[in-house]
Fold this protein.
Amino acid sequence: AGLMEYYPPDPVLRFKVDYGLDFRQIDFYPAISKIAYPKFGWMPADEEASKAAAEEVVTHMQFIAKHLVADKPFIAGDRPSIA
């Protein structure tokens, strides 16, 4: 239990969790922020940038489905993780 429940001790699974976290911060979050921030009033609205970001989000979701989750319910297998 504890941390190991959400951050697996197996090095291969731990790599997948780390990769998922990095992907979220480096690729996925910036695309989401281009859509969400204008809606929250945190930056000026730019319809063109929002449309491009929406396409990025779809591409990122496809990548997640194909490469990170694939045939498993979660990135690290059958259980949720911190990713």
Summary: Helices lie at 3-6, 11-40, 47-69. The mean pLDDT is 89. The radius of gyration is 15 Å. The chain has three helices and no strands.
